[in-house]
Structures
1.
Amino acid sequence: MDRGRGRRGGTALLLQKATNQLTRRTNERLVLRTIYERSPLSRADVSRLTGLTRTTVSGVVDDLIELGLTEEAGFGPSTGGKAPIMLRVPTDARHTVGVHVDDERISGAVVNLHGEIRQRASAPLRSRDGETAIAGLEALVDRLVGAAERPLLGIGVGAPGLIDTASGVVRWAVNLDWRELPLGERLARRTGLPIRVVNDSQAAAMAEWTFGHHEGASAMIVLKVGWGIGAGIILGGRLYQGDDSGAGEVGHIRVRDDGPSCRCGNRGCLETVAGVRGLLARATDLLASGVRSSLGEGELTLEAVAGAYREEDGLAAQVVMETAMALGRTLGTITGTLDIRDIVVIGPMSALGEGWLAAVRREARRSALPLLAERSTIRFGRLGPDVVELGAAALLMTSELGLVPAA
Ligand SMILES: [Zn+2]
């Protein structure tokens, strides 16, 4: 009996210890996030904003200062008494490696806590074969980890396709011929660092949400339009990944019954019609059928179509508008389903410019309940070509420091 009581007593003690540790960690994250989002703040401000006592805040701030995650930065305005010491999170307190596996290249960046890029590296994706591609990715990661001048939170990888973020397995990347690739495990074993692997459009959504200065919204859709098409969805201030991490895989929604066959095995998928491949295939067909166009001379590329479109070439205008219609309808469907106002369009097809985007907008408004559709804004992203690297890095800021709310 005594032994039993002793065991129970021991368990209770351990449980209490675990609870204390958890509370400490929760408080630490709450205080750090508050300072990160609202700085400069005094200890009293932090106490007021978090609801924690002054004593608790002081203790947590001391710990954060020791970890290098918070610093004192001058005095704030006095409200009668002594001027308070202000706190902030040093921009370069931690760095993160963000990697973007694209259809043709792997790019990576060392990113600080404010989304500023400190180092860059990239390499061509020499083979779509999983093993060779991983070797290239590992070499790039080694270079970036070696180049980092601050403690690293970890490595975030954004890649196309269906990715199980929890296990770090790329389940199926249609355009890369990758299936069941245990990317996260491989990188973790090699580097000993925390790894997050995420769909590229979902990473882009994290980046626009974290670093893109959205105003007062609680939700956002980021639609990435290139060779493939995918969306990242922020719901209630968090990345929404769905039951199988596949939320936003809109590129394979059927938009044309008699459409071209897709690498996924179906026909008429959105990306076969409205992605770069669809655009170029349609232009090729029209040229072959004898439609006259300046695109008949020279190589047919997205840049060439964008240039001809700007110069009001009839064929270019037709194919560009067809992609805009298909994209607009899909966005209308999403708006009608989720009622999200803030829609951001990114990716190589943005090269088609404002005229194309205006057509996307028009079609989206015709494809959903007018009252909902009228209130949505469809705009280009603000972060430029490093958006996936930034978002992959933001995921580590969430998982390791709790700086950004996420999935
Ligand atoms: Zn498909």
2.
Amino acid sequence: MRPVLVTGATGTVGRHVVAELQAAGVPVRSAVRTPPAEPDADRVVFDFTAPDTWADAFAGIESMFLVRPPELTRVRSRLLPALAAARDQGLRHVVFLSLQGAERNRVVPHAAVETWLRRSGVGWTFVRPSFFVQNLIVIHGEDIRDRDILAVPAGHSRTSFVDARDVAAVAAAALRDPAGHAGRAWTVTGRPAASYGEVAALLTTELRRTEPGRTIRYTNPSVPAYVRHARRTLGLPTPLALISAAIYTTARLGLAAGVSDDVDTVLGRLPLSLAESLHLERAAWARPSIPAKGRQE
Ligand SMILES: NC(=O)c1ccc[n+]([C@@H]2O[C@H](COP(=O)([O-])OP(=O)(O)OC[C@H]3O[C@@H](n4cnc5c(N)ncnc54)[C@H](OP(=O)(O)O)[C@@H]3O)[C@@H](O)[C@H]2O)c1
């Protein structure tokens, strides 16, 4: 069996795609930018923007999990040339990590990738997830763990969250059965959508299992206050702070609450609930416990 090339293999979704495929006995070639410390036949150094890394990564590859790295916004010049090279080297099927609603939103870079794939002659499956639960770690982890706050300018509207594990499971199903998933677009969400006030309450419940009295507060800042906080306190680069503010504004307007049952359709099971996801990720927000003898009397 030829290996599946997994791009973004160190990322939020890609790491679970690698695990899903390996658990199913599918050979995986993980594409990574940093060379492994020890020689590793299952890893290949790959960068979408470094053509000298492409030939080795694509050698013998027929199927690929494609992640558009968040920092690559200009996909026509920085991502699609690598895909064209992969096609020329024999790529036959791409499972693309797109975005919920990419079919209606021509501004997002994912739309250009979808359009290219539709015209490429390569088979494709689009996995279009809603908002990752793991953003509560990647962007807001420090606030929740160290300050007991969830600072998001999303008002009281609901957002449709999804666990990266469910996104990866749908992608892996498509990678294992390209013929069954070719030309399909799956909108991958959890259910039901939740407000950030509800998320803070669920985080509180989860953390109180071992840290009685802890309360996570949803602060619902204004957009300018959020951007200031994201830049100065969380250290987000300004473009990322602005993009995330725009995403939360979309949520505030009630446009991010759509849910689907595609996880059930593809996997034959329900998506993880928000409470289940928060339980699985609780270590990210837990305060390190102080050993008894180190405590001040
Ligand atoms: N966050 C959400 O809620 C959400 C929802 C729907 C869709 N999405 C989409 O999901 C995608 C991101 O997926 P993710 O969150 O799993 O990724 P991620 O955690 O942000 O990780 C990005 C991955 O891309 C790799 N990478 C970065 N630059 C690269 C380059 N020039 N060449 C090759 N690889 C490179 C990184 O490798 P290194 O280890 O080398 O850095 C890392 O593995 C984005 O397109 C985003 O729009 C996100």
3.
Amino acid sequence: MAIDSPSTVAATPSSRYEHLRTEQLWQANWRSANAFATPLRSDDRADAYIFVAPPFTSGAIHIGHVRSYTLADAYARFCRSRGDAVLFALGFDAFGLPAELSALEHDEAPAAWVEHCRAQMRKQLEQLGYSFDWSRTFATSEPDMYKWTQWLFLKLLANDLIYARKAPVHWCRRCKTVLALAQVEAGCCWRCDEEVRLVDRRQWYLRLSAYNEENDQRIEELAGWNEPALTAQRALLGRIEGVECDAFALDGRSLAVFTPYADGIADAEFIAISPNHPELGRWVVDNQGPTIDAMNMQQVRHGAHGDSAKMHGVIATAVALQIAGGLRPLPLVVSPYVDARFGPTASIGIPTRDATDKMLAANINIEPTILPWQLKLKEPAVRRAVRYRAADFPISRQRAWGTPIPVIYCEACGTVPVPLEHLPVELPKDLTVSATGNTLATRLDFVDCACPVCSRRARRETDTLDCHMDATWIEMPHAVPREKRREAMFDDPELARWLPVSQFIHGADTGGFVLTERMMAKTLRDQGVLRFLPSGEPYGPTLMHEMVTLSGRKMSKHLGDAVTAQEMVDTFGADALRFATLYAAAPARSFNWNEDVLRYSSAFLTELWGYAEPRLHPDSGLTPALPIEQSDYLRRKLASWCRTAVKRITANFETLEMQRATRNVILFLGRIKDFERRVIARRHALDEYDERAIVFALELLIRLMAPISPHIAEELWRQAGLRESLLVSSWPVVEAVVERS
Ligand SMILES: [Zn+2]
Ligand SMILES: [Zn+2]
């Protein structure tokens, strides 16, 4: 049977491509075959753990998620096809403010709301054809999960890596609640517009700074990280080199002060201390508290990087800086500008050298200090020093929907950690939330307990952990089968099998999480848990991709105008959407979403179907394809194109250059059509060898594009009479493509 030439193809009735039907069919096939189950360990297959960060459980998958997960899914499918044993799963970040607020908005209990959202998101993700192993999923709000977040909290507390200190929090007196920074809008409560006040509260802090040095040094060892991912880690750590010397109070107490300008110390005009300096209380007299609060408020309103002239500092006291030749009296200024540059430290203000110091000096109205110092000191000791911007951060929040902090307050014994064998400390099953106050604090069935030490009546901590804390070990749960998570997590042998992550893909908005995950893996190593990970680095090769913007703004759950993926899948199909998000831009570039690229991708897939489907028809007797017969010049040319396509597209997948992969797929189809056109132009008709050559090339194209748009690839493969799913077809290799004759 002869294959129609291009001019007659259009006239031949061929089945129209129906994306909805095809996609549903193949998703059902994959489900019933349990096609993406994590394989058992075997000696003849390499293990590959492909990890993407879990979404907030908001209920809607948006185009930003689609970009991240399509990159990862295409890579996961490629790895399976090349023979790897792949772990690819998705969890849900289900605790915290976004979930709590949307539960409130829908008048639901948060547990029920999160469950509803999770089911809805899973359905959307399945409709996109993602090959997640759903048997490995998790939600951070499951007791089997937060048990281990609590376990970690206690381990870190025992090792002084979590500590409590007083810190200002944002308080709305009308709503009687502490507000998260995201809920403070221009200094006012997001809900009632009341001016937000700062009140001091005891907060739990994670001592991230303990691992700053190691996290910084190991950046050099991170192999296979793309440059943006490395740059993000360096920027978050904010390492700065300089020198340190001492300043003194009148009574001789000393304060270590830092500057990056070793040769500028003689020009010092003031000392600036961070409002978050651990020793601030020793240097600021009590009645200055409100002023510093007001300054913190400025920081909230304008951001520490703001250039508002009002952003300044408060003169707290005077100190004497020890410089060559004696002591120089200088004012000590509390200023949030220190943090943004050097972290929570004290720095030497040198206006002649530093633009920020110059701006500060101009705004603070510094007057000469006239106090005399009478200290007998040794020679000044100027030492080399390093500072990091990355600071310890508060992990407690005064809201109900979060991991309960496993601490008990007893009048006789003080602060008592919950014994490990009593974990998890569970939230009440019927917990509801309220816009005002923390409902957990009103639940006596939760609050009242017996002291683990003296058995007297005691009360539980009612602050919960920030969801950032839940995420500090977020790459680990997938590795452990669900049914084992209650009993063991960090010492499960599967962790050693899957860590470090073989390929991590994350968006540019999550670099901060990655830094804390790197920190937490090191603390676990130092606890003797992750002994198989001496570097304490949980991530192997890492791709940080840029964001999708919409009219110039980042799309995320914070924006109400995020385009939902659902509508686009309904209209154009999952394959077209997947193709479009990869085609739109290289991963390291952001792109502004518009539907043109989606229309183009959809048109390409329709064109592919229209060309390939009649040619791959099993009645043609040409499938499965035989290697290309190469006695003819044009067929030799096509064979060469086949080899090039395999070589290039394989390399594109290996290096996650998915945008290039889509372009090479388009190019390859163009070349196959070009072959046909040239044969007809030269010899007026295709002979059987030409037809076979086309079928061979099309089968190859389908296999090469399957990771990108898997449904249409499967359906064409089936059309060709190749009954096995593409999932069991191995990745084509160049040598096997065409036998040279
Ligand atoms: Zn309010
Ligand atoms: Zn007690």
4.
Amino acid sequence: MQPRHAPINPLISGMSGPPIPQAQVWAAGYDGSHGPLINLSQAVPGNPPHPDLLARLASAAGSADAARYGAIEGDIALRRAYADDLDATYGAPFAPENVAITSGCNEAFAVGAMLVAQAGDSVIVPTPWYFNHQTTLAMMGITPIALPALPENGFILRAEDAAALIGERTRAIALVTPNNPTGAIYPRETIAAFARLCRERGIWLILDETYRDFIDGDAPPHALFSDDGWGENVIGLYSFSKSYAVPGHRLGAMTADPAIITQIAKILDNLQICPARAGQSAVAWAIPYLKDWRRQNRDDILARAEVFREAIGRHPAWGIETIGAFFAYLRHPFQDIDAVTVAERLARERGVLALPGTWFGPGQERYLRVAFANVATAQVAGLGDRLDGF
Ligand SMILES: Cc1ncc(COP(=O)(O)O)c(C=O)c1O
């Protein structure tokens, strides 16, 4: 049959549809017989935002000021507050000029990719990958080169494996730590080795640290920013969605050398003109004032990880391959059944919605990604019962 519309970009028509709605269809087929749905699919904080943050959002949204366009790189109050937060996180100096605020970290990644690469170039991304990284690159005609993270190494990457993949047109390596989907937290030495490799080869290291506030302890997650030359080839990405439980307000950040932020602003002006303003003003307030709340959330999620271990521990055929920050990567026991079938059955028959590993790249048939941070501890504890006899 002839298409009834003019041709569209084949890089878009060739892509598969957004994965989360597909999983939601399975959940809709669950009859409730084992209790309420336990939704461990999209990484969404289980808790609502702090009530004072909600009050500030309401008041900002009702102001005439927030209805106006703002600065392209984001409002100065949020850039300043975030730069201070970076100082405290990494023990290194940052200025507001190091920061651009974006409409979420997904946009930050897209902007980073546009900044460093053009169609025909390549970017190295670990597999399993965060699917939106792979698809963002692919829809811009940038080739994602898969760098396999192996279960025998705890899904921690090795810079020497990446070195062999860097070609003439490779412009960057994009890492996610703590990782989505595996939950693996890369050691400082690993991150340092990747930064060294990128610098030696004259390419960018794009580091997505969306989940860094959920790491146990207060030590800096790495020392990259203590190196005075970091701005030459490092771009940091962050999301306010998870840490402040505001994914609907679409706020993320990019950290880079001020000269690079100036280049980034050219892209942001075209994509967003400015980030949404009400959220910016509320989050600028929240960064210093909700420090303890953030810590408490992190501690609750760490406790939930232990409950998850216990619940799954009752089923030795299921293996927790890795666990950290927001996610666990589960090895399912069915040798000859692919992960999509297992995830669909688990959702429809037991009311447990997790994502199949195969949605995160090649070679992931035996895994499910479980966003255990999404739901209350009691629901996590209930997972053991849901797997009984499955
Ligand atoms: C690794 C990673 N980066 C970026 C994002 C997107 O975050 P945002 O809501 O800020 O766009 C997510 C969300 O799941 C993520 O897991």
